[in-house]
Design goal:
Elements: H1 2-13, H2 16-23, H3 28-51, H4 69-80, H5 84-87, H6 92-104, H7 112-138, H8 156-171, H9 177-205
């Protein structure tokens, strides 16, 4: 998956809202909108992973320590207050991405490996940088950065290595590994489309802060 998605990974870092955040152009509203629109995908993916936890193939993949959905909700409450669900719209690109993640959980759930790779490995490897940017560029306080925190994982670098090994091990038992690799590519494309849509919507909103 890493080789197949390398170019898409680079594109994701240089496109849309993520590119704005890295360049210091992002604002709090855009960040909140980004989290709001990632939430449905995490919810769908994590429901799928939970439904397959009894399968030995997912023993090292459906790790509750990695769950991000409840942490995103905590950050949205901290940034957007009690009315975040009404003030932050769900974009069509987010709905599309979430549907793909939900479909990945059907059947044997093999496609979930691709989504876990794209989302969780990205969080573990890139979270430290994005957390620093969120503090420096957006002025966010620690109480609004739960998305990046792993209080029960003392060494995220080591954990990421272990998690990659678990993904590799799970991949050995796949009946159609090519399909899972292509699912990872599609997940990256959905992520890129979402990032672009958030940047566009945030720019049009005129919301400051």
């Amino acid at each position: 998956m890493r080789a197949r998605t390398r170019e898409l990974h680079d594109e994701a870092e240089n496109t849309g809202f993520v590119a704005d955040l890295i360049a210091g152009r992002a604002r709090r509203y855009g960040y909140a909108l980004y989290l709001r629109n990632l939430l449905p995908t995490y919810e769908a993916m994590e429901r799928g992973l939970d439904s397959h936890r009894a399968d030995t193939q997912f023993a090292g993949i459906a790790n509750p320590l990695l769950r991000r959905a409840h942490r995103i909700v905590a950050d949205l409450r901290a940034i957007g207050g009690g009315g975040w669900e009404q003030s932050l719209p769900i974009l069509p690109e987010a709905e599309h991405y979430a549907r793909r993640a939900a479909l990945a959980g059907l059947g044997d759930g093999a496609a979930l490996l691709a989504h876990a790779y794209v989302r969780y490995m990205g969080d573990l490897n890139g979270g430290r940088i994005l957390r620093r940017l969120a503090i420096n560029s957006l002025g966010l306080e620690p109480g609004a950065l739960a998305f990046f925190d792993y209080p029960e994982i003392p060494d995220t670098r080591a954990f990421a290595t272990t998690y990659r090994m678990a993904l590799d091990q799970a991949g050995l038992g796949l009946s159609d590994p090519v399909a899972v690799v292509e699912e990872a590519a599609e997940a990256f494309r959905d992520n890129i489309a979402l990032s672009r849509a958030v940047a566009s919507a945030a720019g049009k909103s005129g919301a400051g802060g």
